[in-house]
Amino acid sequence: MNKTDVQVKVSIIVPVYNVEKYIKKCLDSLVHQTLSDIEIIVVNDGSPDNSELIINQYLKKYSNIKYFKKENGGQGSARNFGLSKAIGKYIMFVDSDDYVDITMAEKMYNSAIANNSDMVICNINDLNEKTGNIVKYFNNTTGVTNVFDNKSLILNRPAPWNKLYKKELFNDSNLRYVSNKWYEDLRLTSKLYLKCKKINFIEENLYYYLIRDNSTMNNKNINRNYEIIEAFEDIINYFKEQNYYDEFCDEINFLGIQHIYIAATVRVILNSKNNEIKKNLDPLNDYFSQNFSLKSKYIYLLDKNKRIVYFLLKHKMYRLIKFIFRMKEKI
What we know:
- It is built from eleven helices and ten strands.
- The chain has helices at residues 23-31, 51-61, 74-85, 104-115, 167-173, 184-195, 227-241, 249-270, 277-291, 304-314, 318-330; strands at 8-16, 38-45, 65-70, 88-93, 99-100, 119-128, 134-137, 144-145, 163-166, 199-211.
- Helix 1 (23-31) links the parallel strand 1 (8-16) and strand 2 (38-45).
- Helix 6 (184-195) runs parallel beside helix 7.
- The radius of gyration is 20 Å and the shape is globular.
- The protein starts with 7 loop residues before the first strand and ends with a helix.
């Protein structure tokens, strides 16, 4: 922090890439936050569209926006860059195609101060761009706790953006996002949990996550899904290095079910030709079978739709999965 910088309560970091259609709604939700003592750090990650023109309009009107431009390095790289510029006591990340409740920063900050929390987590609104429908996501954890007292906490969504972090978490641990990789949030969030003495939950759905066809997780590049293997190797190695793997092996196993066996597998199925599904799934299936088990005491945490997919995958009914998802898209 520079001597001339005065620490603010919350730094909100916004990575920007090809979001000219969405950036206004995102920034509007941030500049109208009810918590006034904030800074909004907008990081243009080499976006080739007109996002910069829109951002410049906000720069002229709002003095608490800081704008930076860098070469493309992915969301993880942009978040790290924003962290290096942040002067807030606490950190929030907001993806630039999403938006938040205008009370989010205030409620998260007040909760962090009241509980002396290292991390505060709220519930999520999943907004389908195509239909406009909102599905509310609720964390499986409530109250004030940590991952050692409540291990299932680690099984909540690893998203970086429904959380408020004490900046010291990053400074003291030197943990950062990886660049140009998928699943960078899963890698880092799992590690940060281990560093938190107190994590508390807000039961309101304060974050609006936009589900859209051309988002990262709907990308049709099959090979990117194999990066989940590298992500889990990173997580497993870290937990072993910190001597926590044996303590959390059940939870890591269920993360594997969620993110490899179900999520990555379904994305590969949906983007494969029918006669190539098995071949494309081999790397994921081989890695999963060598490192994880389908038996888990946490299966109850899967919602109804994921339990159906889990059952169909166990019986290798890949084409039926593809048919169901395609029909669902047409409804």
